User: What shape does this take?
Amino acid sequence: MSVREFVVLGTASQVPTRHRNHNGYLLRWDGEGILFDPGEGTQRQMLRAGVAAHDLDRICVTHFHGDHSLGLAGVIQRINLDQVPHEVTAHYPRSGQRFFDRLRYATAYRETVRLTEAPVAADGVLAATPSYTLEARRLSHPVESYGYRLTEPDGRRMLPAALAAHGIAGPDVGRLQREGRLGDVTLADVSEVRRGQRFAFVMDTRLCDGVHALAEGCDLLVIESTFLDEEAALAADHGHLTAGQAAAAARDAGVRHLVLTHFSQRYSDPAEFERQARAAGFEGELTVAYDLLRVPVPKRR
Assistant: This one.
């Protein structure tokens, strides 16, 4: 049975707190696991969340600030210690290659796993599998930063009334799906397009074209909201979003489920982020993230 869920490992921004670990997020997508922005302490948070090194197939780093990448050293060494039997692919800004190299080889260990480096140098598709296409978009932050988007290929939904009208039932349904035609009846005659699910991960950034492109039509959007709206000028200066800005982008993009995360340590009341997001006009499902939260990807429309 396929599982599609988002596991929150940490939600703090630059400074962790007693209740919030540095960043760390895992997307389970059918049989694959994609780890995003492993900050300091991610390996321990994985243990607490029941996430094993064997669950990881890709690592996606948005940028090389410490709260988004210092956990790489521990995660990479754990992958090797546990002798993960499959290839693991790492995506990160090419401009930060020197940082990735330092983190990958921060200390001595025995390499047992094939870790493929696939750095990002420009907007575009990073990988295409039968289950999804992974792409990156440039964001606006003081250091080079990319957001990531996962798109499932469109499928087809069979229409029982149309099948019945053409007298198609039982094994013939499967044959029609495989071959695209059964006699004079085509697959288009008895089905409709089922849009694939869409997920996006947007971290440290100001509002920019990349934010809107990543968020467009998402079923699940995970996006930073480091500051509340009263600190909009501070957010812009440091290359971040406010709760209202993140929610407005999600509203305009038609996002179904919005997850706000990456909170400044100055805030102790997470409910205020939800209030400001609603005030910005976002009416879909809304989650203010906390550590070890699990968020299911919404069911297909």
Summary: Residues 122 and 148 are 12 Å apart (CA to CA).
